[in-house]
Amino acid sequence: MTGIPKNILPVGLLMKEHRLIEKMVRVIDGKIKEYKGSGRPDGFFINGVVDFFKVYADKNHHGKEEEILFARLENRDITLQHRAIMQNLLRDHVQSRKIVGKIRELNAGIFKNSPQAIDEVIAHLQTLASLYTNHIDVEDNHFFLPVMGYFSKVEQEKMIEDFIDFDRQFVHNHYRDFVSGFLKGTEGHAI
After folding, report:
1. DSSP class of residue 183?
2. Longest dimension (CA), the chain
3. What share of the chain in percent tops pLDDT 70?
4. What separation in angstroms does the CA of 67 have from each of 56, 70, 119?
5. pLDDT tens for each residue of 23-47
6. Helix 10-38 and helix 115-138: axis angle, to 10°?
7. pLDDT at 31
8. d(C-alpha 1, C-alpha 127), whole Å
9. Running DSSP on this structure, what letter comes out for residue 149?
10. Where are the alpha helices (DSSP H) in the chain?
11. Is the confidence at residue 190, as pLDDT, over 60?
């Protein structure tokens, strides 16, 4: 095993990641108030928000949910209620990607001091913060713990190992893909 205490559920690791995402949502809420007072978001902060949600929240956190937990639930005889919740959670993931992408696009207007871009970025930040607040509530309070009942203790331990392996490989895979994206354009092949 991995050194994780035996009484930890796999979703406990995901819930721990939620605490950091919630902290970032609180930072965004504070910045929105600040921006509404000053009228101008900080483009460098917005870049950080995009990076946090694209890399940590989506590729890493949602990656574990989608590639490990949800993938294994797909092959189980789960209740219609749990299946519907999982589909809604997946739609939230897609929606968050769209919002983050839009924030990234609009950030160029922040650097150019475009009033329209400023207003739109603030609106999208509010939408993103609200989406994650609701999404985390559903996962933590209505989905994660009940769906653990579909897995044996041995399967749960394997899931924890797979989450840890995912994290261990994440940074290497992330930056390999990053560099490969540049090489595809210049050499015609990936690493």
Report:
1. H
2. 55
3. 93
4. 15, 7, 35
5. 999 999 999 998 887 767 888 999 9
6. 150
7. 92
8. 40
9. G
10. 10-38, 43-51, 63-64, 71-74, 80-111, 115-138, 144-147, 153-187
11. no
- Structure tokens that stand for 168 in this block: 């261990």
**How large is the angle between the packed helices 10-38 and 153-187, nearest 10 degrees?**
50
pLDDT of residue 41: 81
Task: State the residue for tokens 């989905």.
Answer: 143
pLDDT at 114: 79
Q: How far apart are CA 59 and CA 170, in angstroms?
A: 9
Residue given tokens 């919740």 in the structure block: 85
Token output for 126:
């509010």
Provide the residue type at 87 as one letter: Q
Chain centre distance of CA 162: 18
Structure tokens, 187: 């050499």
Residue of 162 and 109 predicted with greater confidence: 162
Rounded to whole angstroms, the Cα distance separating 46 from 43 reads 5
Tokens describing residue 6:
């035996």
Kindly report the pTM of this predicted structure.
0.88
